[in-house]
Amino acid sequence: MLAKRIIPCLDIKDGQTVKGINFEGIKAVGDPVELAYWYSKQGADELVLLDITATSEARKTTKELVKRIASEINIPFTIGGGISSLEDAATLLEYGADKVSINSSAIRNPELIDQLATRFGTQFVVVAIDARQEEERWAVKSAGGRIDTDKELFSWAKESQERGAGEILFTSMDHDGTKQGFANKALLQLHQDLSIPVIASGGAGNMEHFVDAFIEGKADAALAASIFHYKEVAIPDLKKYLASKQIPIRL
C-alpha cells in the first residue's frame, strides 16, 4: 500500500500566508517562504500553495514567490491560483513548482485539463474542487468559493479524471477551518468513483481526524492549514500517531 501523505497548505494573499473559516474571515498567519521551509524540515510530504484571490482579482500567481520557495525546500509542491493557460503552467514549472492546481479555470474551460495532461503529463495536473453540500447535492463553487456553478462534485471529479487529472484536491467548504473533521462520506464516495489519488481538505482539528480521513474516507493524502500554522499539531507527532494506528506513512 502506498504511504499516505501529510500536506500543509499555504493560502496566499498579498504575499502573506492567510487562513479563514468557511472561506471567510481571512487573516494573515505568516511569511510563506519561512513556513514552507519550516514544513519541509518538519517532515511534510508535500506542500500546496494556493493564491486564493488570484482568480477573483484577475491576476497571475507570483512567479518570484514560487522561485523563492523552490530554492528553500526539498519536497514536492503544488501551486494554484490564476493558472488559465499552458503558458502559465509552463512558467511555474520553470520557476520550480512540481505540479499545478487548477480550479476555476478548469470549470470555465474543461479542455484545459486535457491540454495540461497532454503537454506535461497527468502527474503534473491537480484539479482542485471546492464544494458545499446543498440538500442532497455537493455543489461545486468557483473563484475561491464565491461563485455558484452548474457542476456537482462527483460527476465533475469523474470528468476531471477522464480528461487527464492526476489527482483531485477536494475541499469541503462546510468543513473548512471548523476543525470538526473532514467530509469523510464524500471522500469515500470519491475514492470509490475514481482511480486517481484524492486529497482531503477542510476540517482538520486534531490527529484523530487524519486517522478518520485515511480509514473512513480512504483518502490518499490529507491537507491542513490552521492546526499546522498555529502549531496545534506538529507533523512529526502526527506521523508517529498515524504509524501507531497502522496507517502507512513516511517517518
What is this entry, summarized?
This protein has helices spanning 32-42, 63-72, 86-94, 104-108, 111-120, 153-163, 184-193, 207-215, 226-229, 235-244; strands spanning 5-13, 16-21, 24-30, 47-51, 77-80, 99-102, 125-134, 137-142, 147-152, 167-172, 198-201, 221-224. The two termini are 15 Å apart.
Notes on the protein architecture:
By secondary structure, the protein is of the alpha/beta class. It has one domain: Aldolase class I (TIM Barrel). It has helices at residues 32-42, 63-72, 86-94, 104-108, 111-120, 153-163, 184-193, 207-215, 226-229, 235-244, and strands at 5-13, 16-21, 24-30, 47-51, 77-80, 99-102, 125-134, 137-142, 147-152, 167-172, 198-201, 221-224. An 8-stranded parallel β-barrel has the order 1-4-5-6-7-10-11-12, surrounded by 6 helices. Strand 8 (137-142) and strand 9 form a beta hairpin. Residues 55-59 have low confidence and may be disordered.
N/C terminus separation? 15 Å
Number of strands: 12
Q: Helix and strand string, N-terminal first?
A: EEEHEHEHEHHEEEHEHEHEHH
Largest sheet composition? 8 strands, parallel, barrel
Helical segment count: 10
**What count of structural domains?**
1
Structural class: alpha/beta
Query: What does the overall shape look like?
Result: globular
- Hey, roughly how much beta strand do the residues contain? 25-35%
Unreliable stretches: 55-59
Label this structure with key terms:
251 residues; alpha/beta; TIM Barrel; eight-stranded parallel barrel
Please specify the SSE layout and strand pairing:
Elements: E1 5-13, E2 16-21, E3 24-30, H1 32-42, E4 47-51, H2 63-72, E5 77-80, H3 86-94, E6 99-102, H4 104-108, H5 111-120, E7 125-134, E8 137-142, E9 147-152, H6 153-163, E10 167-172, H7 184-193, E11 198-201, H8 207-215, E12 221-224, H9 226-229, H10 235-244
Parallel strand pairs: 1-4, 1-12, 4-5, 5-6, 6-7, 7-10, 10-11, 11-12
Antiparallel strand pairs: 1-2, 2-3, 7-8, 8-9
Helix pairs in contact: 1-2
